[in-house]
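User: Run a structure prediction on this.
Assistant: Running it now.
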Amino acid sequence: MNKLLAKIRNWNIIRKFVHLIVGMSTYPGIAIFNKLKIEGAEKLKTLPPKNVLFISNHQTYFMDVITLFHVFSAVKWGKVNKLGFPYYFLNPYTRVNYVAAEKTMKSSLMSRLFLLAGGLTVRRTWNENSKETRSGLDPSDTRKIERSLANNWIITFPQGTTTPYAPSRKGTALIIKHHKPIVIPVIINGFSKAFTKTGVALKKTGTQLTVTFKEPLQIDYDASAQEITEQLMDAIEQSKKFMPEVLLHK
């Protein structure tokens, strides 16, 4: 038992160190060279420390998640809807995991490092660059996410791709049906303009970045996975009803 506790403490120290390095290096791009507007972060203060699922649209491989880490740690230090100076990374909020594609997280040294910040790798059951139907998550990956929910918050991107208005996979809905987490929709915007898709490098400065936390979803857990999936897509404003007319007629 003592060895287990020591291992957990050492792992948490590593995770905090990664949060510090990644957080401090990305802060200028988020809050100095670009402008970040946060709305609804006051909702985070009343959430329990586990079984909370954040669902979000997805614009970049890393900066979306990193910005949420900034917000979570800032709230832990009493800041609401603002970051201020990032001293919050001296003791960051680390009881949070994020879902990422296994292939993506093994693609570079940076991605492997960021994996230590709380990544849960999953194997896609579809190819992002093909027109295959998304059938969900691999069963072993689903169990991995379930274990994490029992102890932490999880950030997931139901679409599993940075392509806007792409259809969602049903794996997220199945996890919600089985484990009944508190589900918080998050809307992000501006990140695809400000940052490169696969890294943390700036692509443009002076961009308005927005992160909006919505009210927890009221979910009928007896509804079908398809019905819940449609509710999730509406909540993160990625369903057809939110699609610009120019894309609807393509």
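The first strand starts at residue 35 and ends at 39.
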